[in-house]
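Our platform keeps sequence and structure together, in a single record for each protein. Because each token names a local backbone shape, the row as a whole describes the fold. One such record is reproduced below, unchanged from the form in which we store it:
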Amino acid sequence: MLSSTVRVIGYQGHDNDAAGDIFKDALVQHRVSQPRAMTVDFSWMSNFDGVAEHDEYGGSVNSVGVQIIRENGFPSLLATAIIGDLYDHSSCSPQIIAGLPT
């Protein structure tokens, strides 16, 4: 399942998105016990969210503290989530959060 970081960091005017993300994360926690499921929470995506077309979004997103994930990084993040979970269920969290600064 794909989700967003809105639930984790909050974002003005996105209450419904956050509620949906909380539901998805809870559903995945339940499904992990049957044999596995995963949710990947992404911050803003450069082309998917329209950030590339609107420069004003970039400043707004950066002020919140998240990192914009470039379109070419998306397949790598998904592959890492899938491959990591295939070999050892106990070593991977059922929830991966991508795009938050460390």
Summary: Helices lie at 6-9, 15-32, 55-64, 74-87. Residues 81 and 96 are 7 Å apart (CA to CA). The first helix runs from residue 6 to 9.
